[in-house]
Design brief:
mainly alpha; ABC transporter transmembrane region fold
């Protein structure tokens, strides 16, 4: 036969199980939007940096180095703020506090029953040993649920990108006509930022079969 314990000793484990799931539900509801913020800001920072590096010739030709640096600092700052917010929320992981309260409640109750003669010293030691078994799942859940939340946020972000529908007009029936092949530009201006034109007052025509190139400092 296995060892038996006083029925009232179920109070502390029952308290921990109930409060653990309530605290975990609240923790995940608060953490999920923060992890989505972390993944979104990280994606924006990386994608913009990759575009700037791939188009470094264009950035330098337009003298946009400072603007790109400022934009990267802004994106990196947003990612930093999101990561700090996630760390603060993870630091408020209440099950760790509930574990300590459960051990305190269980020890107090066990000692009271011992003084009443309802249980022996060996029962107190064995009971406290059982309560410590809650420690491993509680400590591992701190990192496990954070990783699950980050994984779900990443999956939602990927699905949002995949399922995003564009507003481009698609002529499924097609159109049949002869191609004229002549393109004309009149007084065209172009710039990478508002109110700063790199090209201005450009007018030219491209005849059928002709190739026209605009050659600047980069060749």
């Amino acid at each position: 036969l296995g060892p038996t314990y006083h029925p009232s000793l179920i109070a502390a484990p029952l308290f921990f199980v109930l409060t653990y799931f309530l605290a975990l539900n609240r923790y995940l509801r608060i953490l999920n939007p923060i992890t989505e913020w972390v993944r979104r800001s990280f994606g924006i920072m990386n994608s913009r940096l990759a575009e700037s590096i791939d188009g470094i010739e264009t950035v330098k030709a337009a003298s946009q180095e400072l603007q790109e640096i400022q934009l990267f600092q802004t994106n990196a700052g947003d990612y930093r703020d999101a990561s700090v917010a996630q760390g603060k929320q993870e630091a408020r992981f209440l099950p760790l506090l509930l574990l300590g309260l459960t051990n305190a409640i269980g020890f107090t109750q066990a000692m009271w029953l011992f003084q009443q003669g309802a249980i022996e010293v060996s029962d107190v030691v064995a009971y406290m040993g059982l309560l410590t078994l809650f420690g491993f799942p509680t400590f591992i859940s701190l990192t496990a649920y954070s990783q699950i939340s980050r994984g779900l946020a990443s999956a939602r972000r990927i699905l949002d990108i995949i399922m995003t529908s564009n507003k481009l007009d698609e002529n499924t029936e097609g159109h049949q006509a002869e191609i004229s092949g002549r393109i004309r530009f009149d007084n065209i201006a172009f710039g990478y930022v508002d109110d700063v034109d790199v090209l201005g007052d450009i007018s030219f025509a491209v005849e059928p079969g002709q190739t026209v190139a605009l050659v600047g400092q980069t060749g």
